[in-house]
Write a structure and sequence with these properties.
The protein is an all-alpha fold. It folds into two domains: about 50 residues, no CATH class; about 150 residues, Four Helix Bundle (Hemerythrin (Met), subunit A). It has ten helices and no strands. Helix 7 runs antiparallel to helix 8, helix 7 packs antiparallel against helix 10 and helix 9 runs antiparallel to helix 10. The longest helix is centred in the middle third of the chain and has 38 residues. The chain is globular. Bound molecules: fe (ii) ion (FE2) (2 copies). One fe (ii) ion binds next to helix 8 and helix 9. One fe (ii) ion (FE2) binds next to helix 8 and helix 9. It comes from Peptoniphilus harei ACS-146-V-Sch2b. Its main location: cytoplasm. It is found in: Cytoplasm.
Length: about 210
């Protein structure tokens, strides 16, 4: 993952698009390779977060202006009271629809659905455990003003994103071809959960963990 304080050289090795974008901004790689990514962008008159979004091809997540104005306590409350419960509820709902659909359409597409459902269950297990850890340990410590090591959570975020990438691939970008209402509903709910999860992880990695 790209970090503010890594050198431009390390950032380019991490993601080759960094070089292309820096050149577009008029930067000369040889002169800035050993500078920190953040300083190099500043000297090129570019906003760090905007640059990351461009390079990582992230869509603009909704309602971020409000989140960026929140304090650490407010962000943690927002995540614990709104984001975590909503995402778990959506995951549960998707699980339920899957079970019904596999049974109902077993002959026609039971196997296809099963492969996707397996990934969904891995996501569900990961989220239940990850959210519990955040709520019981890291976030509690952060609220108590302790210094918190976020390494573990960062690794789990990467794993979660990997699982969503897989889900996205298997469902062809959440466009499983179907007339059945349950499958259409699954497309919609999984697409929403994917977007929500990427936004949630962005808020934690890029805002909360850096406070
Ligand atoms: Fe979280
Ligand atoms: Fe998290």
């Amino acid at each position: 993952m790209l970090e503010r304080n890594m050198t431009v050289e390390a950032a380019v090795m991490e993601n080759p698009k960094v070089l292309k974008e820096i050149q577009k901004l008029g930067g000369e790689y040889d002169f800035i390779a050993m500078e920190s990514l953040e300083d190099a962008l500043k000297s090129l008159g570019e906003d760090y977060d905007l640059f990351i979004k461009k390079v990582e091809g992230q869509a603009d997540f909704k309602d971020m202006d409000r989140v960026r104005k929140m304090s650490k306590e407010e962000i943690i409350n927002y995540i614990v009271e709104e984001i975590h419960p909503q995402e778990l509820a959506t995951t549960e709902k998707i699980d339920e629809i899957f079970r019904g659909a596999i049974k109902k359409y077993y002959r026609e597409r039971g196997e296809q659905l099963f492969v996707i459902y397996e990934v969904l269950l891995l996501i569900k297990a990961e989220l239940v455990s990850h959210f519990s850890s955040e709520e019981e340990f890291e976030f509690k410590d952060a609220l108590a003003g302790k210094k918190v090591d976020f390494e573990n959570l960062l690794a789990e975020h990467e794993k979660t994103i990997g699982l969503f990438d897989r889900l996205k691939y298997l469902t062809r970008d959440y466009k499983m071809n179907a007339e059945e209402p349950e499958i259409k509903e699954l497309n919609k709910l999984m697409g929403e959960l994917d977007e929500d999860m990427r936004r949630h992880i962005y808020i934690e990695n890029e805002i909360l963990f850096k406070m």
